[in-house]
Amino acid sequence: MEVLWAPWRMTYNDRKAATDQGPCIFCAATRGDPRERLLLGATSTSVVMLNRYPYTNGHLMVAPRRHTASLVDLPAAEYVELGETLRRAQAAIAGAWRPEGFNIGLNLGACAGAGIADHLHWHVVPRWTGDVNFMPMLAEVHVMPQHLLDTYDRLRPAFGWLDAPHD
């Protein structure tokens, strides 16, 4: 039998098991090295970053800079800007990678599947025919064809429009 090593998944498993998950990744996204944080860019009210535990290459997240778990509590102007950021993020991935489709979604609350339930965020997942194979079903393993930082380096130029000043 072949062994597929994915040691970076333990960071995810350990984080899920910990009760203190540390600072919010979305609130901390604009501090420090953007590449290390996987920050593709930010506006005055939103951040766009790669998912550290992606379903497919290019899986990113769009979140408000405001720390909130409530979609209905967002001021209307912030919601409109988030919608525009989400729309433009999808267009940037489409232009850079030419996926055949997308999954775009928002999970509100832990029971709805939110991995970070206290800060709402949208997932933008580019999809290609055949990008999901038997590995997740049989071995609970996702095979990623590209390293996460290579994905960041490839996508970052497509998000130059997000170069608003940030912390």
- Name of the CATH class: Alpha Beta
Largest sheet: 5 strands, antiparallel
From the N-terminal CA to the C-terminal CA, the straight-line distance is: 49 Å
Strand residue percentage: 15-25%
Compute the gyration radius: what is it?
16 Å
Question: CATH topology, anyone?
Answer: HIT family, subunit A
Oligomeric nature of the chains: single chain
Q: From the helix content, strand content and strand pairing, which structural class follows?
A: alpha+beta
CATH superfamily: HIT-like
Give the overall pLDDT as a whole number.
Answer: 82
User: What is the CATH-assigned architecture?
Assistant: 2-Layer Sandwich
Principal-axes shape call:
globular
- Count of separate structural domains: 1
The largest sheet has its strands arranged as: 1-2-3-5-4
The helix tally amounts to 5
* Low-pLDDT regions: none
Q: Give the strand tally.
A: 5
**Portion in helices:** 25-40%
